[in-house]
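Students often ask why we bother predicting the structure of a whole assembly rather than each chain alone. The short answer is interfaces. A chain on its own may look different once its partners are present, and contacts between molecules only exist in the joint model. In this exercise we take two input lines together and write out one structure for the complete complex. Read the inputs first and try to guess which parts will touch.
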Amino acid sequence: MNVRVAFDTSSLLPLVLPAHPRYQWVKPWDEAVRAGRIAGLVLAHARAELFATATAIPGIRITPKAALQVIEELLQGLEVIPGSDEVYRAAVARCALVGVTAGGVYDALHVIAAELAGATAIVTLDVGDFERFRIETSPRIIVPPDGGGLL
Amino acid sequence: MDIELSHRACDTWRAMKTAATIDVTVPENRKLELELPPEVPAGKAKLLVMVEEQAEGRELPEATVQSIDGRLRLVLPEGADIDWEQVSVKRSRDERTKKFLGMG
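Now the answer. The structure tokens for the assembled complex follow.
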């Protein structure tokens, strides 16, 4: 059975926009998923976050259809974890547990989804934001270009 | 320092005393340099940016969908100068949170 690796939105955004300065850092992860060396997971909420962010680049028009096409193809190769009430409730509870407020709950959503889906690791470009939600049983955090020994 | 901008801010402040509203055109690089005139007292202030003409009304260079490294990607127009710090999931979330708070 392949290692299950969850991706947060920050780690997927450069795969949508190859001009992104971190594209080369996350490309090996994309290649590992496509080659079937790892099983990639993503919370359904990332679809909305990717769309919102990719279509809001200042000074550039990115049509909704173009964004849809690219995001759908990217997520086709990943196992999408539904954003269930269980995920949202657990994310808010984790925020309360570790004392995080405001937008931090969106990072908690990705951590909780990864835990519930049995991920071994979470790949993110925002290490500090994710480490604060980890508990003993949480997946480890990997920040590209580190491959965490999985690539 | 943007001399004209500062002079207009100064003139407006002299007239209004409490608030200065000046009209500017947002440049392509989106950088405005503003030095407040000496008449403006030091202390707390709010800087409010209101954009009257929405970007949708302008002809913006458009990204295209291309296959790169075996996958469809959004390719930006040649020469596009992007401030990538402005393009982040966190920023997108923060803007949404401000909207919920009635600040956006």
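Check your guess against this: Chain B has a mean pLDDT of 75.
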